[in-house]
Amino acid sequence: MLRIYGSANSRALRVIWMAGELGLKYEHSDWLPRAPETQTPAYRALNANGRVPTIDDDGFILSESMAINIYLAQKHNSPLWPANLKQQALVMQWSLWETDRLDRQIVDYVRHTVALPAAERKADIAAASWKQVAPAFDVLETSLTESTWLIGEAFTVADVNVAGALYRALSIDLGKWPRLDHWMKRCWERPAAKAARAMRE
């Protein structure tokens, strides 16, 4: 039995979404980042970083949400994992790109514009983050002029990984990036995405 450690209010959101896309049954430890449960010796034995998400797939332990989603798609022979080697490489490209260019940046931007109480927001952090977020949105906008989804005409784990990480972009006006906006809406209208989002909201 698959067990997912991590709340939908964390990067486990994209793993929960993937499990839904694959129709997997799983047990769920609904733990927030830095929750006391993540600091116990038992959990540290699974994930020495004390972070979420982690999965236990019949004794196989894996952390890092991007890696987890790629593993699950491959293991279950899902069409979300492309058969073509070059498209597989593009899945990796987009997943790694997101973690470098948008993951922390969009969190910081949204936290310091709307999520934190007004007294705790720092305009300099918001501004610095936006200087990285906007060009990354430009990259996505350009890429989506060439195909329906990130790596072609089929929805793949690349779309789950990037759109899942961009959950906070749902609160941002994407009018300047119409293709990105349309892609985000199509991603998050998928039944598995809506179910995962409902667990967070």
How would you describe this protein?
By secondary structure, the protein is of the alpha+beta class. The chain has two domains: 2-75, Glutaredoxin (3-Layer(aba) Sandwich); 85-195, Glutathione S-transferase Yfyf (Class Pi), Chain A, domain 2 (Up-down Bundle). Helix content is 54%, strand content 8%. It has a four-stranded mixed sheet, with helices on one face. The mean pLDDT is 97.
Q: Brief description of this entry?
A:
With 201 residues, the protein is an alpha+beta fold. The protein has helices spanning 12-22, 41-46, 65-75, 85-101, 103-115, 123-143, 157-165, 178-188, 191-200; strands at residues 2-5, 26-29, 54-57, 60-63.
Average predicted confidence as pLDDT: 97
Instruction: Please provide the count of β strands.
Output: 4
Rg estimate, integer Å: 17 Å
Biggest pleated-sheet summary: 4 strands, mixed
Number of helices: 9
| Morphology | globular
Domain module count = 2
Give the ordered list of helices and strands.
Answer: EHEHEEHHHHHHH
Name of the CATH first level of the largest domain: Mainly Alpha
- Helix/strand class: alpha+beta
N- to C-terminal distance: 26 Å
Widest sheet: strand ordering = 2-1-3-4
Low-confidence stretches: none
